[in-house]
# Entry
Amino acid sequence: MSKRVQAVLLCTLAFAAAALGAGCGTKTEQPAVATSAPQATATKTAAANPTTPAATAAPSLRQTVHADIGRIMADIKAAEQRGDVVDGVRVGVSSNPYDYVGVSPVFVKLVALGKQALPAIAAEIEASHQNGLREYLLAAAGAQISGDTPGSGGQSWEDGKEWARQYREDD
# Structure
């Protein structure tokens, strides 16, 4: 396993621990969010009545997964345009999908969504008409959430569609 993949795994674990409040022995504080009075009222109303527009406007896990993979791919495209180099290989030239995992910090955020995001990740892959890097990165995130070590050679899938199919069979 490359040092880059190891670093991404460590970052993912640290981010997930922080997101869960486990922060390596230190208390993690969430930043205060400024809320206007009308927004606060709408939020309280939405909590009391989940059918209000404010409640239904909250992004679903599927929407979050869709937005996250979109940001990841945009970050990869920007890195490619800048001519960034990862592990000695220029971004956009490598055929190893794991070389792209560390290009975007959003990959760590996607993995930190945890097991409840697995159905949304599978659905995002299944809804795609493609089966390329985007789908592979979604599958890599899903595999990492499931406890598989990326690039360990122990994975039983070769592409995103196959990962989604196996996930549905095992689910």
